Protein: Glutathione import ATP-binding protein GsiA
Organism: Streptomyces tsukubensis
Amino acid sequence: MSARPSRETTGDGPPLAGTGTETGTETSTGTSTSTGTGTGTAIGTESGARPPDAVTVEDLRVHFPLRTGVLRRVTGTARAVDGVSFTVPARSITTVVGESGSGKTTTGRALVGLSPVAGGRILIEGRPLDRLQADRSLPRVAQIVHQDPYASLNPRMTIGAMIREVVQVHRTVPRDRTADRAAELLAQVGLAPELADRYPHELSGGQRQRAAIARALAVEPRFIVCDEIVSALDVSVQGQIVNLVKDLCRDSEVSFLFISHDMSVVRHLSDRVVVMYGGRVMESGPCAEVFDTPRHPYTHSLLAAVPVPDPRAPAPGTGAAARPRAEPPDPADPPPGCRFQRACPFATEVCRTEAPPQTAVPAGTAEGTAAPEHTVACHHHDTPGVRAALTAPAERTTERTTTP
């Protein structure tokens, strides 16, 4: 890829992509001067050195006021995200997974400045989010691809026009190469050249999502949030989009935060997994380790819900904690202690009074081998009985299909 001229900061600063505006685009910091990042080069500072994390989230809190009455007075606070910490390694795909209301989408929106941050710290390639917002450079660093591309793409512009506008606004290539760059982006996401003259309503759902991704790549962002971008697509199309994201991560310097509730997609796609429930992180770690040896009852219940082709075969993650016993907590009135206490079959008095900290757990099955990158927020994660129930396969509790 050819070197690009440095971009001047415009007075207003372009908005985020997918927010319903005509110039909504995702941007990059190809000429970033942040520590450890060279212009047009890989992020690593030394040959063979581990590159710095693309995103660091520390004790993130996102609270929303609750208003009632004619005067809309504030009567409470909804703690949508309440003390979330994790990292997104450079040039990798980290997936945030959880049920509806877990806070995963709010977390993703906060990372690109679309949700108000009540506390904590967000660093993108070492630079604080508030500083990026203050100097209007955040849209050039982090972007989001929304769940519904039909709502995020401008219906009055053709796909090609949207992408060309992004390239022109952010000056990623000389002006006389704008059309060529737009064509390259369409090809990169697997769209035929003739689709450049189509409007969003003339494309299928998968094609629209590819167009949204192409618009994101038009300014070569360093970090992209994908908010359930395959949840509304057919299964065959889901696989194509997931493979596209994997290819983009492999072939570029972009890091991805993928938000999903589909555990099958998560396992196929992710390098790391962050499991959220009730606005907090329950477990996080390398994808294979979290799936093969879940250490939190909620992770176990998510895995137990994954359908398997043969109903007679034991499902991954089945056992004593296969089904949560209660509804998720109310974000306006969360319980003290562990957020999962009311649904957990292993909850004790300490779970009802003390919030469990994020604790490093042994790596895989190697006893005594610490794996700081795999953490769990559970008081009883290392209790022998609980650990055995979470990691040992068991008979499925669902009714089996009789084979003739």
